Amino acid sequence: MSEATSGAKVTDRDTGMPLVHAVNVMKSFHDNQVLKGIDLDVHKGQVICLLGPSGSGKTTFLRCINQLETIDGGRIWVDGDLMGYEDRAGTLHRLNNKEIAAQRRGIGMVFQRFNLFPHKTTLENIMEAPMQVKGEKKAQARERAIALLERVGLADKPAAYPSQLSGGQQQRVAIARAMAMQPKLMLFDEPTSALDPELVGEVLAVMRELASDGTTMIVVTHEMSFAREVADHVVFMDGGVVVEQGDPRSVINNPQHARTRSFLSRVQAEPHAVEDVPATPEEAIIAVDGPRPAGERSVPVKHRPEEDV
């Protein structure tokens, strides 16, 4: 493990310092160096979008924040806590599994696939982690789960099983499940890539509402409308490094680096399921159910599931 700035606490929760502070993060899989010194600060309430081609390291970086992957160099702090390690006089010592699990409780993560329990209802899926991990009483967990289902536009689906829901509805349940743990940080790994095009808008709408409510989010996405309209800051990665970053409209509309221009020109030339992010899931559903030009109900689009390593 390479050395970086010492000290187990780098932020004060009352100083406005970054909620996420990543310094020189490196990660390799065998001989393939996937992350080559990533630096990133994310402040409380910010929405950060990570853009870039598959294999650029975006998903790996998210997984390193949540300690689903161990880093080979650098350090990551979340809300002042050094993730996965204890710093003893400048030497890092790996935390045990129980300590790492405790750190993860403050971070919600939504994956490409929904990973809901097929034998549990939507309400039970959302209640599970608060009861099993945090020891919440059933009544308290149920009350929050009902509120979260309403928040994601599924108040009428508490008794539904995953098999009875569309992909977009399942992903909205997955978001509610992550939010049930009341995380300080939400990580989204291509949350719409596995969805049919007509279902993308309802998921993006829920994410937009979370952003409006001040949820701190790091989002890996190819949805340029979300990055442009909702993100506070975008980061373009390629080959394991940050190539370009800044204000979404500046980076997306006027990229300065040739690699960024090449990627964005290719992505923007393709048809998109969502040109503008709906304000609410209901608005997205109305847009899909309503008439489209030439009688189409959705815009064909070829999604590329993230193949990041």
Describe this structure in words.
The chain is α/β, with parallel strands linked by helices and 309 residues long. It is 32% helix and 22% strand. It has ten helices and twelve strands. It has helices at 58-65, 97-104, 122-132, 138-151, 167-179, 200-212, 224-229, 248-253, 258-269, 281-289, and strands at residues 20-29, 32-42, 47-51, 73-78, 81-82, 85-88, 91-94, 107-110, 185-189, 217-220, 233-238, 241-246. A six-stranded mixed β-sheet has the order 8-9-10-3-11-12, sandwiched between helices. The chain is globular, with a radius of gyration of 20 Å. 42% of the residues are buried. Residues 2-14 and 291-309 have low confidence and may be disordered.
Descriptors for this entry?
309 residues; alpha/beta; disordered N terminus; disordered C terminus
Low-pLDDT residue intervals, each spanning 5 or more residues = 2-14, 291-309
What coarse outline follows from CA principal-axis ratios?
globular
**Quaternary form:** single chain
Mean pLDDT: 87
Tally of DSSP β-strands? 12
Largest sheet: 6 strands, mixed
| Share of residues in strands | 15-25%
Record the strand order, biggest sheet: 8-9-10-3-11-12
Total number of helices: 10
Fraction in helix:
25-40%
* Rg, alpha carbons: 20 Å
From N to C, what is the helix and strand string?
EEEHEEEEHEHHHEHEHEEHHH
Distance between termini?
A: 20 Å
Based on helices, strands and strand pairing, what is the structural class? alpha/beta
